[in-house]
Inverse folding.
C-alpha cells in the first residue's frame, strides 16, 4: 500500500493546500494591531542582559554536544546548542534542553553517604567528606597490602571525565580500570579495529566541514555529497551518539537526493524517515552483509559500468585480501545445517534474514553502484549479538572494497580522525611501572599492565575490558592465565563504580545482585568494598558501602569524547558551582590520593596529584596539550605549508598563522598548545581542517599513490584483511598452552587469521542448537536505546512528555510526585511542586509488539503482559501495539523500565508495570572474543497478565 | 521601533527534515517556564499503515501567529494583540483570564497559566527575536527543520523557501491565514501544483 504523508495530514484534517507560492503577505490582519508599551519593550530588551553565557558540553548521552548554557544569579536556566561546535551545529535535543531538571533534580546525591543496612536495602547515613574518604582509603590501603592493588577495580561507566579516576587507580597500582566502552556495542567496533585500526565508521555527514580551498584559504563547506546511506541497527534520530547524523542525513536527502535505507526489525524514527525500511530478523545483520559481499564479489565487473562495484585501488593499501577472499568464498560451497542452503547465497540470506532475495539483491547492487555511499551498522545490530564481530568485519570490508573509505561523502573512521586528548594526565604511564609478584614461590617482575584481569585473565583479546564477567570474579576471584604473571591468583576486593550503573546495565541485574551480596564463611561480603561516585542515585548505589556525590556535568570540567570527521575538540566548563556537597573528579582524585599518601602509600606522590593539579583547569590543560596530535595528511592537505605526514600539535590559529616549531627528527609541527584559556576564548571548541584519503599520499618519484603510513591504526598502517592484531593474542595462547573459554565455546583454538563465521546464541532461526525453542518461545527479544531513557535521564519530568517508538509511551497509572515545574511567578522560573499525573499522560517504558501478534494473544495497547525466557526469568510491562515492528519480535528500551532505585524519581513509581529488559538477558552469553553481553540474543514467550 | 515596522515574522517547518526528536517541545517549555501540563509547542506523532507498509509522521505545532487571529478578535479587554511585526502576544497586565481566546483558537495554541491566571501562548520567543536571536525552538532544532525570519525580506531564508517550495498551512478553511508554513515531508524537490 502506498501511503504518503500528505494522505495522513489530510486524513487527520490538519493540513490542506494553503499559501500559494510567494506573495504571502497581504494587507490583511490589521485587527488588534498595536504598539507594545514602552515598559513591555524595555522588559523584552533588557531581559536577556541579566544572563551570563557559558560555552560547555553535554554529558547526558555520549554525543556530548557543544552547549551554550545561560546562567542568571549563579543558577543555570537555559540550555542551547553551541553554534561553534560542528558535531551538533548549534542543535540541542529534548534531553539536552531539559538538563536543568537533571541538574536541579531533588533526587541527586547531596552528601557523602555510608551504608547502615545490608547491601541492597538502600539504608545510609550522611557522612562528611573526610569520613567517607578515610573509610575508602583505609580499605584500599589494607587491600593493597593483603591482596595487591590489582584486587581493586575502577569502573568509570561514563567515558567522559574518567581520566582523574583512572589516573588514581593506575598510580595506586591497579591496571584494572574500565569505562563505558566495555559495555557499549563492543562487537560493533571489532571490524574497524582489526582491519583499519580504528573504531567507528560513520558517514561523511558532518557539516559544516572546515576544509582547505584551492586558493589556500579555509572554508566552512556545507555541501552534502553522500548519495546513499544504509543504517543497519542504527537509529541516530533517537539514540544520538553521532549527532550530526540527525541534520546531516535529512539534509543529504533534501539537498543531494541521497537515498536512505534502514535495516532494523523495528520502525525506528530513522526508519520512518528512510526511503526504504527493511525489517530484518534480529541477529542476522552479518548474514545480510555476507550476502551483499558475496553478491558484489560474484557480480563485480570492472568493464561494465553497471557492475563496477569494487574499487580495486584498495589493494595497494592493504594486506591479506586474497587470504580473506579465499576464506570467505570457501564457505560458498558449504551448506548451512539450518536451511541446507549454501552460505551467503541470496536464498540463504533470505531464509535467515527474512528479507526477500530480490530486496537483498537490490540493496547489494545499489550499494555497489552508488558512489559515494556509506554502510553504517550500529549498536543494535552487530553491537549486541554474540556473533556481532562477523557483521562488523563484513561491513568494514564492504566499505573499503567499494572505495567508500575516507572519500568525500563516504565513510570516515572517526576514531582515526578525531583529535588526540588526555596525554600524560591519563596516568597510563603508571602501568609501565615494574612490579614484583611471587607466584608458586617464584618471584616474577614485569610491568603493572600485565596484571590486567581481562587481557591476562580469560579474555586476552578484550581490548575494551570485560565488565560483564566481574560478578563471577567477585565470587571466585581471579587467576591470571597469560603473560609473565600467569598463575597469579587473587580475589577482587574493591569495586569503585563511578557514574556507571553496572548493576542495572551490564547484563542481568540479578547476577550482579548475587555477586555483590555473596558472603564468605565468616559472613562478610566477598567483595569487601563497593564505592559509588555519582550525581544521581541509581540502582548500583543501593549496593554501595560508601557513596560520594560528584558534581554534575554543569559543575565540572573536562573534554568531550566525540567522533567527528576531522579533529575537533570541545571543552566542558564549570558553568555553576557544584551543588549540595558535591565535588568535581579532580578534587575527588586529589582527596583520595592525599589520604592514601598519608596512610603510607609509597606509590602516590604529591607531585603526581595535588601539587601538580591545583585545579580542574590544570588537569584539563594537560589533557589539551597533545591536541590535535594527527598527521598532516590527505587531500586537500590540511596545512600545505608544513611537511606532509608530520604530526600537528597546537591551536588552530597558531598552526594557521605559522607560529610553530618544526622538528624534522621527530616529524612534528608544534604550535602554541591548546589551553583552557584558549578554549574559553573560542566558544570552547577547537577545529582543525578536514582532509580525505588520509591513508594514502602521492609519491612523485613513483608517479603513484602509496600508503601514507600515518592514518590507519594497524601495525602495518595498511588495511589488514589478515588479522595481524590477533597474532599477539595467539602468541599468549601458545606460550600458556591455554585456550580462552570464549574461543573454546565456538570451537576455536586460536583467534582466526582472517574471515571467520560462527552463529549467535539463542537464535532458533540461525543456530541449530536453539531450533527447538522456536515453538515454545516464538518471540525474539531486542532492545534499543532511546534518548529519553539513557541512564539517569528517565526521571526528567519533561522527557515523560516525549513518547518514542512504542518503547516509551504515555501509559502511566495515576500517581503523584514532586517535580521541578515551570513557574513564571518565581524568579528561577521553575519550582518544586507536587504534581498529580493523570493516567495515560506520562511516558513510561513499554514493550513494542506487532499488531497481528498482539491480536493473536488478545493483547491491546496498555495491557500488562508477562514475558518469560527459557532461563526461568520473567518480566512484566505494558504492551504498545504497533504495525511498526516485525512479527515475532518484541522490543524494549534500554533502561526504560523496572527502575528500582528511588533516585529515579517519578520513573521509580512505575517500576512494577514497566519492563526491565536485562532481566531476560542470559548473563552467561558473553560474546566469545571480547566478553560483551549478548543484549539482543534471547527468545521469549508472552501472555497477558491476569487481573 | 522603526526596524520592527518593516519586519513581518514567520516560520517555515520543513517536515522533510523533522526527525521527531521533540526538542522544540521541551526547549520551549524550559525557555518559557511553561507549566507542566501546558504546551506552547508540541510534536504530534501518528503511525499509519499496516506492516510492513507503515509510516510514522511527525507534525510539530505552535501558535501560527495568524494574519487574522481569532484570539485577538474575541478578547474583551484588548489584552491579546498583534504586533506590527506579526507576533501575536498577550498583555499580561490586562488579561482577565476569561479564556475566550483559548476557546477561539482553532489550533489549541493557548492555555491559562495556573500560576499567573492569564492566557499564555507562543511568542516566537519575543525577547530573543527582539535581541536578534532566533526563537529557542529554532536554535535547538536537531534536523534544522525550523526556519524563522522576516517574510518582508526577500533575502531571508524563510522568504526564499516560500518562494521556491510549495508550502501548506494548518486548517486554512478557518480563514486565519497562518504565518507558520509547512513543507510536506514527501515533497521531493520538483515544484508541483495541487490538483
Amino acid at each position: 500500500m502506498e501511503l504518503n504523508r500528505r494522505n495522513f495530514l489530510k486524513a487527520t484534517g490538519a493540513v490542506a493546500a494553503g499559501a500559494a507560492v510567494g506573495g504571502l503577505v497581504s494587507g490583511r490582519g490589521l485587527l488588534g494591531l498595536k504598539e507594545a508599551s514602552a515598559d513591555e519593550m524595555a522588559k523584552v530588551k533588557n531581559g536577556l542582559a541579566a544572563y551570563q553565557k557559558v560555552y560547555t558540553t553535554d554529558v547526558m548521552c555520549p554525543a556530548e554536544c557543544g552547549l551554550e548554557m545561560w546562567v542568571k544569579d549563579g543558577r543555570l536556566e537555559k540550555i542551547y546548542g553551541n553554534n561553534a561546535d560542528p558535531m551538533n551545529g548549534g542543535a540541542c535535543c529534548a534531553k539536552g534542553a531539559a538538563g536543568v531538571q537533571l541538574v536541579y533534580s531533588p533526587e541527586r546525591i547531596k552528601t557523602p553517604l555510608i551504608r547502615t543496612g545490608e547491601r541492597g536495602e538502600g539504608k545510609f547515613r550522611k557522612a562528611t567528606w573526610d569520613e567517607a574518604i578515610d573509610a575508602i582509603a583505609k580499605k584500599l590501603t589494607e587491600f593493597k597490602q593483603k591482596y595487591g592493588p590489582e584486587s581493586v577495580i575502577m569502573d568509570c561507566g561514563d567515558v567522559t571525565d574518567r581520566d582523574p579516576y583512572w589516573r588514581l587507580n593506575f598510580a595506586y597500582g591497579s591496571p584494572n580500570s574500565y569505562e563505558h566502552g566495555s559495555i557499549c556495542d563492543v562487537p560493533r567496533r571489532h571490524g574497524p579495529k582489526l582491519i583499519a585500526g580504528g573504531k567507528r565508521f560513520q558517514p561523511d555527514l558532518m557539516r559544516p566541514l572546515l576544509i582547505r580551498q584551492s586558493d589556500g584559504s579555509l572554508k566552512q563547506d556545507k555541501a552534502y555529497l553522500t548519495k546513499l546511506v544504509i543504517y543497519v541497527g542504527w537509529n541516530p534520530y533517537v539514540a544520538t551518539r553521532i549527532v550530526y547524523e540527525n541534520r546531516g542525513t535529512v539534509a543529504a536527502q533534501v539537498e543531494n537526493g541521497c537515498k536512505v535505507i534502514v535495516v532494523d526489525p523495528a520502525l525506528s524514527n530513522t526508519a520512518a524517515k528512510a526511503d526504504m525500511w527493511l525489517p530484518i530478523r534480529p541477529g542476522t545483520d552479518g548474514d545480510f552483509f555476507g550476502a551483499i559481499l558475496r553478491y558484489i564479489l560474484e557480480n563485480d565487473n570492472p568493464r561494465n559500468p553497471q557492475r563496477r562495484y569494487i574499487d580495486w585501488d584498495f589493494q595497494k593499501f592493504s594486506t591479506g585480501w586474497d587470504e580473506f577472499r579465499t576464506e570467505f568464498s570457501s564457505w560458498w560451497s558449504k551448506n548451512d545445517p539450518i536451511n541446507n542452503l549454501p552460505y551467503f547465497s541470496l536464498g540463504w540470506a533470505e531464509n535467515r534474514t527474512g528479507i526477500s532475495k530480490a530486496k537483498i539483491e537490490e540493496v547489494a547492487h545499489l550499494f555497489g553502484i552508488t558512489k559515494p555511499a556509506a554502510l553504517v551498522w550500529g549498536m543494535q545490530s552487530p553491537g549486541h549479538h554474540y556473533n556481532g564481530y562477523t557483521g562488523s568485519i563484513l561491513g568494514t570490508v564492504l566499505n573499503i572494497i567499494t572505495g567508500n573509505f575516507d572519500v568525500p561523502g563516504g565513510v570516515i573512521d572517526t576514531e582515526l580522525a578525531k583529535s588526540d586528548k588526555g596525554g600524560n594526565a591519563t596516568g597510563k604511564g603508571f602501568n609501565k611501572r615494574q612490579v614484583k609478584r611471587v607466584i608458586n614461590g617464584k618471584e616474577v617482575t614485569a610491568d603493572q599492565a600485565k596484571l590486567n584481569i581481562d587481557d591476562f585473565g580469560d579474555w586476552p583479546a578484550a581490548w575494551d575490558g570485560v565488565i560483564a564477567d566481574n560478578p563471577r570474579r567477585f565470587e571466585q576471584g581471579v587467576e591470571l592465565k597469560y603473560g609473565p604473571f600467569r598463575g597469579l591468583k587473587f580475589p577482587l576486593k574493591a569495586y569503585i563504580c563511578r557514574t556507571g550503573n553496572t548493576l542495572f546495565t551490564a547484563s542481568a541485574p540479578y547476577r550482579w545482585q548475587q555477586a555483590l551480596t555473596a558472603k564468605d564463611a565468616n559472613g562478610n561480603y566477598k567483595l569487601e568494598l563497593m564505592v559509588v561516585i555519582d550525581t544521581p542515585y541509581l540502582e548500583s548505589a543501593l549496593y554501595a558501602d560508601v557513596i560520594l556525590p560528584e558534581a554534575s556535568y554543569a559543575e565540572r570540567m573536562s573534554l568531550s569524547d566525540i567522533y567527528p570527521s576531522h579533529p575537533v575538540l570541545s571543552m566542558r566548563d564549570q558553568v555553576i558551582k557544584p551543588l549540595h556537597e558535591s565535588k568535581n573528579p579532580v578534587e575527588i582524585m586529589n582527596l583520595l590520593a592525599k589520604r592514601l599518601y598519608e596512610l603510607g602509600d609509597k606509590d602516590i606522590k604529591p607531585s603526581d596529584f595535588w601539587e601538580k593539579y591545583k585545579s580542574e583547569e590544570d588537569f584539563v590543560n594537560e589533557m589539551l596539550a597533545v591536541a590535535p596530535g594527527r598527521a598532516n595528511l590527505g587531500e586537500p592537505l590540511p596545512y600545505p605549508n608544513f611537511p606532509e605526514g608530520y604530526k600537528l600539535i597546537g591551536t588552530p590559529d597558531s598552526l594557521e598563522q605559522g607560529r610553530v616549531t618544526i622538528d624534522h627528527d621527530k616529524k612534528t609541527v608544534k604550535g602554541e598548545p591548546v589551553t583552557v584559556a584558549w578554549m574559553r576564548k573560542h566558544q570552547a571548541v577547537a577545529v582543525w581542517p578536514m582532509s580525505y584519503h588520509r591513508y594514502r599520499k602521492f609519491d612523485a618519484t613513483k608517479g603513484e599513490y602509496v600508503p601514507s603510513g600515518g592514518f590507519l591504526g594497524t601495525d602495518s598502517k595498511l588495511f589488514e584483511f589478515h588479522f595481524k592484531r590477533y597474532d599477539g593474542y595467539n602468541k599468549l595462547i601458545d606460550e600458556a598452552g591455554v585456550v580462552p573459554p570464549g574461543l573454546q565455546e565456538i570451537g576455536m583454538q586460536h583467534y582466526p587469521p582472517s574471515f571467520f563465521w560462527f552463529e549467535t546464541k539463542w537464535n532458533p532461526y540461525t543456530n541449530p542448537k536453539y531450533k527447538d525453542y522456536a515453538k515454545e518461545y516464538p518471540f525474539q527479544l531486542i532492545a534499543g536505546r532511546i534518548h529519553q531513557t539513557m541512564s539517569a535521564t528517565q526521571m526528567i519530568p519533561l522527557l515523560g512528555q516525549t513518547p518514542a517508538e512504542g518503547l516509551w509511551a504515555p501509559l502511566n497509572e495515576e500517581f503523584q510526585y514532586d517535580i521541578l515545574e515551570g513557574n513564571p511567578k518565581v524568579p528561577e522560573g521553575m519550582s518544586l511542586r507536587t504534581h498529580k499525573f493523570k493516567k495515560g499522560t506520562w511516558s513510561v517504558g513499554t514493550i513494542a509488539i506487532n499488531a497481528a501478534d498482539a491480536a493473536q494473544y488478545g493483547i491491546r495497547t496498555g495491557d500488562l503482559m508477562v514475558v518469560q525466557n527459557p532461563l526461568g526469568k520473567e518480566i512484566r510491562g505494558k504492551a504498545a501495539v504497533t504495525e511498526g515492528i516485525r512479527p515475532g519480535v518484541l522490543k524494549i528500551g534500554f533502561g526504560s523500565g523496572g527502575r528500582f532505585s528511588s533516585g529515579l524519581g517519578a520513573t521509580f513509581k512505575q517500576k512494577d508495570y514497566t519492563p526491565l529488559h536485562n532481566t531476560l538477558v542470559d548473563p552467561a552469553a558473553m560474546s566469545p572474543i571480547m566478553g560483551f553481553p549478548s543484549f539482543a540474543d534471547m527468545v521469549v514467550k508472552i501472555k497477558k497478565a491476569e487481573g | 521601533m522603526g526596524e520592527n515596522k518593516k519586519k513581518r515574522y514567520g516560520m517555515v517547518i520543513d517536515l522533510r527534515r523533522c526527525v521527531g526528536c521533540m526538542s522544540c517541545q521541551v526547549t520551549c517549555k524550559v525557555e518559557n517556564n511553561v507549566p507542566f501540563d501546558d504546551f506552547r509547542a508540541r510534536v504530534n506523532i501518528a503511525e499509519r499503515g499496516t506492516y510492513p507498509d507503515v509510516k510514522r509522521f511527525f507534525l510539530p505545532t505552535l501558535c501560527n501567529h495568524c494574519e487574522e487571529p481569532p484570539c485577538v478578535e474575541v478578547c474583551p479587554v484588548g489584552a491579546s494583540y498583534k504586533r506590527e511585526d506579526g507576533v501575536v502576544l498577550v498583555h499580561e497586565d490586562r488579561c482577565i483570564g476569561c479564556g475566550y481566546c483559548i476557546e477561539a483558537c482553532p489550533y489549541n495554541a493557548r492555555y491559562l497559566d495556573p500560576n499567573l491566571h492569564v492566557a499564555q501562548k507562543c511568542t516566537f520567543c519575543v525577547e530573543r527575536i527582539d535581541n536578534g536571536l532566533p526563537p529557542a525552538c529554532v536554535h535547538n532544532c536537531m534536523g534544522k527543520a525550523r526556519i524563522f525570519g522576516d517574510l518582508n525580506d526577500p533575502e531571508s531564508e524563510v522568504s526564499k523557501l516560500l518562494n521556491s517550495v510549495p508550502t501548506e498551512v494548518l486548517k486554512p478553511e478557518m480563514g486565519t491565514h497562518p504565518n507558520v508554513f509547512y513543507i510536506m515531508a514527501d515533497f521531493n524537490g520538483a515544484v508541483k501544483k495541487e490538483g
